[in-house]
Design goal:
Strand 1 and strand 2 form a beta hairpin. The protein is 52% helix and 5% strand. The protein is mainly alpha-helical. The chain has a four-stranded mixed β-sheet. It starts with a helix and ends with a helix. The chain is globular. It is built from 15 helices and four strands.
Length: 369
């Protein structure tokens, strides 16, 4: 016997009411959390590191500072010079504020500083910040090019680095003093997500990273039962099964600051380049890599030999917001503290990053209303 339209509506009424009540509650809670995050950011987001709040690049609004193209023209070089002067000034201020100035570190910590004698350059190779693109360019002007072509960019002997010199070496001092030094850096939360997706989700080296780091991240899944996850990690190590470390687990592990969670692909960028102990001439951003690398190549003479990159990296946008929606707000605050120096020194804006993600969270919620 078929139901009448009236009875069908009556049967649907309760589920529909419950659905809308749940959506409204989720929206209210989420907006409340977002409001708390943004209002806390005005007063206590960083609990003593309020320098992060309201920071913005000195050159914000200037073409090339936030990904806008800098069109070549009679004043192109002048505008690019100003952008990099602003970045150096911000870096110097951060080094003083954090009291990190001092002599260069020992050579063993300079293994990511690649040098090229013919062009008198030193490049700090920051993983997950356009390093492969940059090494493709540098390989073409490297005396070791044939070896690199045969063995690949990531071969340990592909590029010379400053760790090859002994401490106090005149050759090391000469290169640090007289060569053009530059780096390419990336928005810290975006770089962290990129590292997770490459090393624990989609990249070719997932099994290797799960083997080396997975068990540590799994231990934070249920801290009171870490032995259980050690057994799972051991059992899956010899099989094709994946450990499936989640982004939230990855973040919690990184936030411990413990050595077993550290890796050059996601550790703070200043720990790789030592910018307070070594004076850099140019600080490029992945987001403006096309402009920055072309300018650096122009200033160092490489532009006469090699074509510059044709575009900058796209911003993560919705993917970044969707992934960080899984992370508790208190952990996002902690990430702000962990990467505080990188945000301030490299002219990135933590508060702006969070607000941009929050806008996407709110827009996603509106789809349910």
């Amino acid at each position: 016997m078929s139901s009448s339209p009236r009875s069908m509506l009556k049967n649907l009424a309760v589920p529909m009411i419950l659905y809308f009540v749940i959506v409204v509650l989720i929206t209210a809670l989420t907006r409340s959390s977002y409001f708390q995050l943004t209002t806390d950011s005005e007063e206590q987001l960083l609990e003593g590191d309020s320098r992060l709040v309201g920071t913005a690049p000195e050159s914000e609004g200037v073409p090339g500072s936030e990904g806008e193209p800098v069109s070549e023209g009679p004043d192109w070089e002048t505008r690019m010079a100003q952008i990099h002067l602003d970045r150096r000034t911000a870096l110097q201020g951060a080094c003083e504020a954090f009291d990190l100035t001092g002599p260069p570190p020992p050579p063993k910590k300079l293994h990511k500083l690649r040098y090229n004698d013919p062009y008198r350059i030193v490049y700090c190779d920051v993983a997950k910040a356009g390093s492969t693109t940059m090494k493709e360019i540098l390989a073409k002007v490297d005396p070791n090019y044939e070896y690199i072509r045969r063995n690949g960019l990531h071969d340990p002997a592909a590029f010379n680095d400053l760790s090859l010199f002994s401490a106090g070496s005149p050759d090391l001092k000469f290169r640090l003093t007289n060569y053009t030094k530059f780096m390419i850096v990336r928005e810290p939360l975006e770089r962290l997500l990129s590292a997770y997706q490459d090393k624990f989700k989609y990249g070719p080296g997932v099994r290797e990273y799960e083997s080396n780091y997975g068990k540590h991240f799994l231990e934070v899944r249920t801290p009171r039962d870490s032995e259980k996850w050690k057994r799972i990690a051991t059992r899956t190590a010899s099989r094709e099964a994946r450990l499936n470390v989640t982004f939230a687990e990855f973040v919690r592990g990184v936030l411990t600051g413990e050595e077993q969670f550290l890796n050059i692909h996601w550790q703070p960028q200043h720990l790789i380049c030592h910018p307070c102990q070594i004076s850099y001439d140019y600080i490029g951003h992945l987001e403006t890599m096309q402009n920055d690398v072309r300018y650096i190549m122009y200033k160092t003479g490489m532009l006469e030999k090699v074509a510059p990159p044709t575009q900058s990296a796209r911003r993560a946008g919705k993917n970044m917001a969707n992934m960080y929606a899984e992370i508790p707000l208190q952990d996002i605050r902690k990430l702000g503290r962990l990467f505080a120096f990188d945000y301030i020194a490299y002219s990135f804006n933590f508060e702006k990053t969070v607000r941009n993600m929050a806008k996407i969270w709110e827009n996603n919620l509106r789809l349910f209303l």
